[in-house]
Amino acid sequence: DTLWRENEVAIPKSHDGVAGWKYIRQLAQKEIRELLKNNTSVVYDDVNARYQHREELRKVARSCSAHAVVLFVDTSLDEILKRKEANRSHRKRHDVEPENFQKAIEQLEPSTADEDVLVYDQKIPLDKWIDRNFQGHVRHDAIAMKTIFQERRFR
Question: Angle at the Cα of 63 (from 5 to 52), degrees rounded to 5?
Answer without folding.
Answer: 65
